[in-house]
């Protein structure tokens, strides 16, 4: 059978003539057509699976690209602002150190009492009481209350309060109480002053002293 004859039979083949129960006795054109149809379906399915795989891979790559781009932008922003962060941290550290330098250590509390008493005398007040009360220990600092009772004129009391507030050490004033004990011009003021000690500094100082003691031994 020539190629032209076979091709003509394929062209003249009618799908309505297909009987799958008699596939073994199909004419050659029917067998060729069915084989081509099966091959086409296989190729189409393989192409679909391949294309879908490529599509999923493309979506995965695009997702990774977006994630990497976002990470890059964040890192770039952090790098661009790194110097500003460092400068801000240095400023905060300097401010913190400055505040710490204004907190008295345990050995300096007596000197602070003398400074408060001096401010009272400079203001022309009579100091009836000036003493340390029970300390209050917190996680990072120790609160040192100082009870103060002074007597004098109204303006003298104001000058004393301003003088205590201007001391180099940090001293906060609480619980003001002013009364006139007699019918005279003098007023009596009771006030609670508070200063603070930083626990970390005292712990470090104690460790240094212990180290020196061991060295001497």
Keywords:
five-stranded antiparallel β-sheet; 6 helices; single chain; rod-shaped; Alpha-Beta Plaits; 217 residues; 19% strand; alpha+beta
Describe the structure.
The protein has 217 residues and is of the alpha+beta class. The chain has two domains: 1-80; 104-205, Ribosomal protein S6/Translation elongation factor EF1B (Alpha-Beta Plaits, 2-Layer Sandwich), CATH 3.30.70. Helix content is 59%, strand content 19%. The protein has six helices and five strands. It has helices at residues 3-12, 28-80, 82-101, 109-122, 154-165, 199-216; strands spanning 126-132, 136-137, 141-152, 172-179, 187-198. Strands 1, 2, 3, 4 and 5 form a five-stranded antiparallel beta sheet that branches. β4 (172-179) and β5 (187-198) form a beta hairpin. α1 (3-12) crosses α2 and α4 (109-122) runs antiparallel to α5 (154-165). 10% of the residues are buried.
Gist of the model:
The protein is α+β, with helices and mostly antiparallel strands and 217 residues long. Strand 2 and strand 3 form a beta hairpin. Helix 4 runs antiparallel to helix 5.
Structural class: alpha+beta
CATH fold title of the largest domain: Alpha-Beta Plaits
What is the percent of helical residues?
Answer: 55-70%
Named at the architecture level, the CATH assignment of the largest domain is 2-Layer Sandwich
**Largest sheet composition:** 5 strands, antiparallel
Rg measurement, Å = 47 Å
**Number of separate strands:** 5
Low-confidence stretches: none
Helix count equals 6
How would you describe the oligomerization state of the chains in this entry?
Answer: single chain
Q: According to CATH, what is the class of the largest domain?
A: Alpha Beta
Q: Proportion of β residues?
A: 15-25%
Order of helices and strands: HHHHEEEHEEH
Domain tally? 2
First-to-last CA distance:
119 Å
């Amino acid at each position: 059978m020539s190629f032209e004859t076979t091709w003509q039979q394929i062209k003249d083949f009618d799908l309505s003539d297909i009987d799958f129960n008699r596939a073994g006795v199909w004419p050659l054109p029917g067998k060729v057509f069915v084989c081509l149809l099966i091959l086409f379906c296989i190729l189409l399915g393989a192409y679909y699976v391949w294309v879908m795989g490529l599509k999923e891979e493309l979506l995965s790559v695009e997702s990774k690209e977006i994630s990497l781009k976002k990470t890059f932008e964040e890192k770039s922003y952090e790098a661009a602002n790194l110097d500003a962060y460092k400068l801000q941290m240095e400023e905060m550290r300097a401010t913190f150190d400055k505040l710490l330098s204004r907190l008295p250590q345990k050995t300096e509390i007596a000197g602070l009492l003398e400074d408060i008493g001096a401010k009272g005398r400079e203001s022309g007040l009579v100091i009836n009481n000036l003493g340390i009360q029970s300390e209050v220990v917190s996680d990072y600092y120790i609160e040192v209350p100082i009870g103060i009772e002074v007597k004098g004129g109204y303006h003298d009391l104001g000058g004393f309060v301003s003088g205590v507030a201007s001391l180099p050490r940090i001293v906060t004033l609480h619980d003001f109480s002013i009364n006139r004990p007699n019918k005279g011009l003098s007023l009596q003021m009771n006030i609670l002053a508070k200063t603070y000690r930083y626990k970390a500094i005292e712990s470090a100082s104690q460790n240094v002293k212990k180290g020196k003691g061991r060295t001497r031994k």
